[in-house]
Write a structure and sequence with these properties.
By secondary structure, the chain is of the alpha/beta class. The chain has nine helices and twelve strands. Helix 1 runs parallel beside helix 2 and helix 8 packs across helix 9. The two termini are 16 Å apart. Bound molecules: zinc ion. The site of zinc ion has 4 residues, from loops.
Length: 279
């Protein structure tokens, strides 16, 4: 068991733009994971999703997906909540056909809700999603991503609570978002250790199959603005992250969301392997 690194989407270095081309390219580059981006809409056919599966299995590239951005499980508007449920179910179904193991989503926005009301609304929608996936015999994890804006629902503690109360839900830790939202100061190895320690305490063996997003980030008082390449300002810093991953024997997947996708995935991977080799 170890950590897999991969890009959010088809690698930049890949000549093809298809998902199958992306999987092949990841394997050639030595990257063992790829996140399929449904962020701007789910446009993949079921037949195509089924074609991806044997390729990814043969090349040992593990797959995940990112559900559409226009999702708000906390919405007071029934039609919005309903379409959000539908989008996540659709993403999860296709991801499971590709052999993927987790669909990441942004839970929603507080809007006029108190944090507790937003939590209950998100939970109710997720119960519906779980039921629909079970009825269709779709086995997958639902990754509640830690969000980057103060106006958005989905802080680390909120997502951990969802994971504790809902069987299919687990958090997807976006470290840049944790920093940008002002929830965590992420500068040193100890800051990363504290976050993993919290995950281990609350969710046990989740640290043996964690799913996270990594990049650097530009942010304001309201939260995230842009994802930045690794090494730009070291916010959050990648070297101590690689060190904590390598030294603690955690297993899981790190998806790189910086503008340099696969290049930065390879950079982080080589840092991680360098430290592993020293131990
Ligand atoms: Zn995301």
């Amino acid at each position: 068991m170890a950590v897999r690194f991969g890009p959010a989407g088809v690698p930049i270095q890949c000549k093809e733009s298809s998902s199958i081309g992306g999987v092949r390219c990841c394997a050639e580059l030595g990257l063992k994971a790829m996140e399929i981006e449904f962020s701007h809409g789910v446009r993949m056919s079921e037949d195509y999703a089924k074609e991806i599966k044997p390729v990814a299995e043969e090349l040992d590239v593990s797959l995940s997906s990112h559900a559409p951005y226009y999702v708000n499980l906390c919405s007071a508007e029934k039609s919005t909540a309903k379409s959000s449920v539908k989008r996540i179910v659709h993403s999860a179904k296709l991801t499971s056909l590709t052999g993927g193991n987790i669909t990441v989503f942004h839970p929603g926005y507080y809007q006029k809700h108190t944090p507790e009301e937003a939590y209950q609304a998100a939970k109710k929608a997720l119960v519906e999603i779980q039921e629909e996936l079970r009825e269709n015999k779709i086995g997958i994890r639902l990754g509640a991503e830690t969000v980057g804006k103060k106006s958005a629902f989905g802080g680390l503690e909120e997502n951990i609570r969802l994971a504790q109360e809902l069987e299919m839900v687990e958090p997807c830790i976006d470290f840049a978002h944790l920093l940008a939202r002002g929830d965590f100061n992420i500068k040193t190895e100890n800051d990363y250790r504290m976050i993993f320690g919290m995950l281990e305490k609350e969710l046990g063996d989740y640290v043996q199959r964690f799913h996270c997003h990594f990049s650097e980030i530009e942010y304001s008082e309201k939260g995230e603005r842009n994802h930045l390449p690794l090494g730009t300002r070291h916010e959050p810093p990648f070297k101590p992250f690689a060190k904590v991953l390598a030294e603690n024997g955690y297993s899981g997947t790190v998806i790189i969301e910086s503008p340099r996708l696969d290049f930065d995935a390879l950079l982080l991977k080589s840092e991680y392997e360098k430290i592993k080799g020293e131990n």
